[in-house]
Amino acid sequence: MFVRGHLTRQPAVDPRGLIFAVIDLETTGLHPGQGSRVCEVGIVRMRGDGTVLDEYSTLVNPELRITNDELHGITNAEVRYAPTFRQIAGDVLAYLSDAIVVGHNLDFEEKFLVAEFGRLGVAPQRVPGLCTLVTARIQLDRWGYKLDNVANLITGEWPVALHSALGDARALAATLAKLISTAPQPLSWLGPPPAPLPSLPRTGIIAPRAVALRKGTDGWLATLTARLPRMAYPPAPRPDGVRDYRALLAHALADGRIVGDEAAQLALLAARAGLTQTTARQVHEEFLVEARNRAEADGVVTSTELRELQRAAKELAASHLISDLAEAAAANRARNTGPLKGWRILPVGESGRITEVIDYAVEHGAKVAVNLTKTVRLVVADGVAEGHPQLAKAYAAGVEVLAPDQARKLLENEVERRSAGLFANPHGESVANRLAAEQAAATRPARPEWHEYWRPHELTPAEYHARFVQRRDDHWDDWDDDSDDDTYHEIRISVPSAARPTTPAPTPAVAKKGGCLSAVVLFGGLAAGVAELAQRALT
Q1: Edge-to-edge strand order for the sheet containing 127-131?
Q2: 211 with 266: CB under 8 angstroms?
């Protein structure tokens, strides 16, 4: 199915402008020839510069019982309402079309895709492919080439949703983007260009799985939504699934908060409803707007109703939909507890300038007086004669009388003083800013740690063969030490004569649940031919 290309240090095509389709599959077993099926698909379409263009993810009903759920967490209950591969085949082809297909151990994805499409009588041919397992081995001299290890090394972060198809695809996409953009030496694409694939009818049926949920700082639903695919053209969710999702959402928010078990149940219903990031946010926002409408139906939003709306809005990551209510409540509190609390101000005159000053004072906690009393601290006058009775009383009582501009400045200074706190120190802030600027100027850009493992030269086909194909001592495995599959495979490799090793023909080598046992490794400096790794299972 795939024609392998290579990210090489030799001059070739700049990969930053190419489209890549990063794919990961979760399966019911390791061998499609023995009946194993795909049970989840995740695809991230991206440019080589790291720009994510589209995402796709869905559980797949394998039409057989899942017995290896301890590996990926996918249960029979979860796939019960998921589409079959026949139903999603057209969508998968569309997401892989006109792109270089990327996988970490692309052989694994290839054998399952060939088997699944073969059942439908479809056989995509000569699809450009990139195996990042092979790429990592060729470019990096560091033991352990599992996806999580390579992703952590290059990106500095551990994947957050391992063993979910979309989580692994996202981790690999981020790793590929970082590799291309920050490699010590520029990498080029040497291989076939993206090409269109055969097309099948598209259904748009999805059942995305949200895993690795956590409360974090933003709440359970924020994590749930983030784990769903961010599709450029999301399909409409299933109405019956949305109805159940909204019902459970209302039940979960009845006590004002969502807990972990409720989040897991909502994730299951989100898959059955076919929710994506976009449609999930739409459902959450519509849910909150309807709750607000109920609260406003009698013309008054009580403090109890406002608290319920605020708690729900925080859980739903939709606080912007009630921000005006929150701001009105905050303004009301400020009027009672603001920095001008205790000030009573008497306006004398009716000019617009006076109105602006009084509004500012009230917003910050001041009260407006009608007559001059002992509690009045300030008189603001404009457009009245000096002999006005109120002014005369103020002068006699020793109360300060100011024009609007003067009064505004006085009040602003008081607000600033009262808001600054006991330890406010402008000079200290200036010193801190100066030291931060000095440290920033003295700090040189750090060299990425993973550059320490950059090989002095990329491996030749013969070197790759010797290090990763022939080696079989103690069932040696450099990338998947959790595997328990002891199936033996015969590995054949053909390289240009000038680069062939002097050792005899390769002997059977151990392959535990993968290793990229089928890869074409292209090198710009070897114009005479192309290195090809091929796999043939011994029977």
Answers
A1: 2-4, 127-131, 100-103, 19-27, 38-47, 52-59
A2: no
Q: Which two tokens stand for residue 399?
A: 């109360």
* 61 Cβ neighbours under 8 A, 6+ residues apart: 39, 79, 80, 81, 82, 83, 84
Q: Give the tens place of pLDDT for each residue, 98-113.
A: 999 999 999 999 999 9
What is the H or E stretch that residue 355 is in? helix 352-363
C-alpha to C-alpha distance for 27 and 359, rounded to whole angstroms: 66
Helix, strand, coil percent values for the chain (each to nearest 5): 45, 15, 40
Start-to-end C-alpha separation, the chain: 23
- Classify strands 38-47 and 52-59 as parallel, antiparallel or unpaired: antiparallel
Containing 304, the helix (H) or strand (E) segment is helix 303-316
Strand partners, 165: none
Residues 6+ apart with CB under 8 A from 271: 59, 78, 81, 82, 207, 208, 209, 210
**What values do phi and psi take at 514, rounded to 5?**
135, -125
CB 114 within 8 A of CB 175: no
Q: Whole-angstrom Cα distance, residue 233 to residue 113?
A: 24
Q: What is the CA radius of gyration of the chain?
A: 33
Task: Spell out a b/e string for 94-132, using b for 16 or more CB atoms within 10 Å of the CB, else e.
Answer: bbbbebbbbbbbbbbbbbbbbbbbeeeebebeebbbbbb
Helix/strand/coil for 367: strand
**Given this model, what pLDDT does residue 243 score?**
97
Residue 418 has pLDDT above 90, yes or no: no
User: Is-contact 349 402, C-beta < 8 A?
Assistant: no
Nearest to 533 by CA among 138, 269, 58, 93: 138
The C-alpha angle with vertex 362 and arms to 359 and 363, in degrees rounded to 5, equals 85
For residues 115 and 87, the answer to whether their CB atoms sit within 8 Å is no
Identify the residue whose tokens are 């708690």: 311
CB burial of residue 426 (10 Å; 0-12, 13-18, 19+)? exposed
Q: What is the DSSP letter of 109?
A: H
pLDDT digits (tens, 9 = 90+) for 117-176: 999 999 999 999 999 999 999 999 988 899 999 999 999 999 999 899 999 999 999 999
pLDDT at 387: 85
- For the chain, give the percent of residues with pLDDT over 90: 65
Give pLDDT tens digits for 49-60. Answer: 999 999 999 999
Confidence of residue 329 (pLDDT cuts 50, 70, 90): low
| Cβ contact 461:467 at 8 Å | no
Q: What is the pLDDT of residue 440?
A: 78
